[in-house]
Amino acid sequence: MRTGSGVPLIGRQQELAALESALAAASEGQARAVLLAGDAGVGKTRLLTELCARANGFTVLTGRCLDVAGLPYLPFVEALGQLPVAGASGLDGAMEQLRLFEAVHTELAEKPGPVLLALEDLHWADAATRDLLLFLVSRLSRQRLLIVGTYRLDDLHRRHPLRPLLAELTRLSAVDRIELRPFDRADAMAFVSALSDNDLPETTLRGIAERSQGNAFFCEELTAVYGDGVPSGLSDVLLARVERLGPNARRVVRAASGAGGAVEHSVLQAVTEVDDLDDAVREAVQHNVLVTADHSYAFRHALLGEAVYGDLMPGERARLHARYARLATSPAALAYHSLQSHDLPTAMRASVQAANEAADLRAPAEALRHIEQALQLFDAVPDPGVTEYRLQLMASRMALAAGHAERAVAYARSAVALADDPEDGAKARHQLVLTLLPMEKAAEVAAAVGEAWELIKDRPPSVVQAQILALRAREWVWYGGPGLELEHLERLAERAAEIGTLVGAEDVAIDAQITLAMYAHWRREVEKTEHLLRDAASRAAALGTYAIELRALKNLAFVRYYQSSFGEMLAVVEEILERATAVGLTWAEIAVEARIALIEVPFMIGKRSTAEPFGDYSAAPRSAALRLQAAELYQLAVAGRFDEVDEAAGGILAGTHDAVAVERVRFAVAEAALWRGDPRVAVDESVRVIDWLVELPSAGVTDSRMAGATALAALADIAEQARRNRDEEAARNAVTEGERLYEKVLALGNYALKIHWQQQVRHPETILQEARMNAELSRLRGEKDVEVWRTAVTTADMFRYRQATARWRLAEALLDHGRREEAAVELQAAHADAVHMGATPLREAVEALARRARVALAGVEPETEFLTPREYAVLELVSTGLTNRQVGERLYISEKTASVHLSRVMAKLGASSRTEAVSVAYERGLLT
């Protein structure tokens, strides 16, 4: 681990800019003073050190105050003692004060160059130092002098002697005050990551960032020995502040540490039974141990509360929590204090009540925390008052709503195992299916739907029967057998709606309506689809069934996508996120999918550059964060940030079993491998995607063709390299492998409904991926067919990156046929798009081909003629495998002259052999 001074300055750009501005003014003869304030450990010294390092041309003098008596003028003595001729020798109490002050002023003001005087820890300054500082600052005018003084905000109680000085100084026009605040979450995580040399998992980074509350010193201490407790060294520092308090104030502070958060005055009075509570609290507040908030008190820093709590004896803690439990007014508080005081039956009941209350308040993450605590207590309590089945089922629902996808699956599976009657079994399987759908667990979904239906199909109409019918209507299109008819699915959905209405389950009826809307979409009934989805969203919102409302909006976005109305689709996606946040479903499955759409779709259509930053997902649950990171990877590959792709891919693959996230990772790794010249990796990753899709009952048509096109592109690269190396067997093997793969991909997509298949294959993205496959197959065979690449360009009209890539290959084919002017048009368009989208590897490939073709590109300095026309001619013939004699015969020159030209080519390319020269020429775009 590195110390804070050993890492780059993080998160202080604005404050550093203000200090550098003052430094620049001082160098021009406009003297300034800056008061740099902040809590202990926030990073004042680190920032001041950075300023001193940047003060080029300045005489830098530094002095520090100490918490000791009897040393007047200590920081000035230290600072002036650094001068070649120590002007501080006369700084003593016997010297008449005005003469002394004038001497110091003269010493600083009359230096031949600018001076930076840095005084640290002014909260410990003695009276003499404070007076001298006021004298110097009040006389700042045209000197080339900058004075910077630091002090701790949390040491300034109301009667602190520095306060009057600060009040006087801040009224002066030459004085600026900068308050250094704690890091925000992102900067704290970046700082901890730098401290640990990027060696900590993200969950640990997030935990340290949150516990430190952005304090740099706390970050360092927690990183050094990260865990749940407070490091002993840090604890000693924090407790020293408490030890300065009087007995009653210490008693109040110790009692407050057990509150578990802010504590009201009346509660603190009842817990402590201190007669003069107001005086005790006032002392703790004045010494910046506690802070006031409305009618309650809290620790100024959470770690201070942790340190005080950790200093309590076990018996003290138990008695303290028992007193708090008797005063608890909420189930959550009662559960916490009962657990800490070892009253497990009360903690169990209160945890369940708190979970229900949090669920009603649309706080699924909080509800999940309470229900998980109840599950931990279940076996330890003789009469829990609730079944484990109910707890597992609720835990799954809350985990799914909070974005903890894999935990939701685990709890649902447990609920299935615990169900002891048909209706409970059907409910548990219904929940299990909802958790599995985003993960493409096809076989388990099909089995669960079938089992649930068998359990309740012969029972009287009920809510769960309506739910399972609606689920069959919705999911059987994916998991049903061949020969399925759309009319049958529509009847299932209609029957689910009827039963839902009959038994008072209006939410089920609305859910079934959404399914019917999608079947209307497949029939191309545009107005009906729009009406049904908007109506369903409105009814669900009014009913308070927000997950169903979001499903309606998600399907509306899906419809817009298949209509290629991408702008309207993104507007609906924004609506989904707004509603999800408003109703407490910020990280629910549909909200995560919406965020993924905002990552992928704008890039796909050319409205987003890879240079634009991604969102901050540090607050997201781990499973949601991994899915979002997986969605970002492809753009990192396109940007040429290959090391980042490798690092992130490894972390995601190690951290999730989500098949969809894994698929995104494999696409990104394959794209990166293509651009960095590792085509076999690109083939292997693409084949893994295809093999996974084969296992699904209804393979994704678009995804399978995208994987196929990527694999064929990689195989074409392999074949081209083999041909350059005159390895015809390797080239033939690549062609054979590609042709087999092509046929395999085109056979994928055996949908249960023909109309569903048709809807998939007619989408523009599927069409463009098939065009890519055809064009790459042509390149694999060595055909360089202009028309197949022109088709690839045309079909990618709405997909900017794909079109730019196709234009590059089209230009290559055109050049091969001698059509240079047409190629120039394609290269210029491809280059403009690559630059716009931040597609660095594509841009470089286009520029290399343009150099070969001598095509001018906007914003690119034309390269001076690298090889002469004769050298180009020799190189081209050598690349076909001709000897020097054969080259000479073709060009009507002697063998010796051909050899001389080849030697010059090799020298210019830095190659040691003719084979290496050809290889380098291909890499640099000199040959195609």
UniProtKB/TrEMBL annotation:
Pfam families: AAA_16, GerE. CDD domains: LuxR_C_like. One of its GO terms (biological process) is regulation of DNA-templated transcription. It comes from the Bacteria. Keywords: ATP-binding, Nucleotide-binding. One of its GO terms (molecular function) is adenylate cyclase activity. Transmembrane segments: none annotated. SUPFAM superfamilies: C-terminal effector domain of the bipartite response regulators, P-loop containing nucleoside triphosphate hydrolases, TPR-like. PANTHER family: TESTICULAR SOLUBLE ADENYLYL CYCLASE (PTHR16305), TRANSCRIPTIONAL ACTIVATOR DOMAIN (PTHR16305:SF35). This is Regulatory LuxR family protein. It comes from Kutzneria buriramensis. The lineage of its organism: Bacteria, Bacillati, Actinomycetota, Actinomycetes, Pseudonocardiales.
